[in-house]
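Sample intake — tRNA 5-hydroxyuridine methyltransferase
Collected from: Trichococcus ilyis
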Amino acid sequence: MALNEMMNRPVVKKELVAFMRDRLKRFPGELGELEKTANEKGVPIIPHETAVFLNMLLGQIKPKRILEIGAAIGFSGSLMAQHVGAEGHVTTIDRFEVMINNAKANFEKLGLADKVTLLEGDAAEILPTLEGPYDFIFMDSAKAKYYEFLPHCIRLLKKEGMLVIDDVFQGGTILDDEADVPKRVRKIHRRLNQLMDTVLDHPALETSLVPLGDGLLLIVKKEDFDFSYILDEIQAEKQNHA
């Protein structure tokens, strides 16, 4: 499993990050053990301060239907599954076999196999087939795909539902000029900026940015609308580069 280099480039002072990760209460039971093991092995999961924030947020929202894009080893999916109640459910997506196998094993270990459905494959192909509405969507997948996945998320999200997108600051490099960004991450840089430009001032969205981990973008859909033009834009771009 490849490590995310941005996990060790927090956007706040490293002393404050260390304080949050040390002082914020650990999760009990098997969930806490899963987080501890992942951190010891360097497995990319959401950092502790982000997990604690997400746990508190979900405790207030009390969603019944959750969609996650990017299952990884199942830590965040397991965390969210504990908030959906007896009738709720989490649907999560991943395309990497090693992640899928680990996530399934962890859902079983935590007794959550009946609360979580793991869809195997490319989210770009799976998202158009899903039917909403979802109360809460958590996106933590390929950063270059966030902009492309946004129209699907907005379509699937209920009115007044919340979309949370992880790792949007790229260690603060999102503020850099594209010419100063290494070529290998320029697409990520461009797409994240397109994402920000699209949602931050949109009249039908309420947004907030939280500097936890590598940055969280919180979006609440206030009105029903669609971003289908983004998919047309991306398709045209792909054809031009074919």
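Post-analysis note: Residues 51 and 178 are 31 Å apart (CA to CA).
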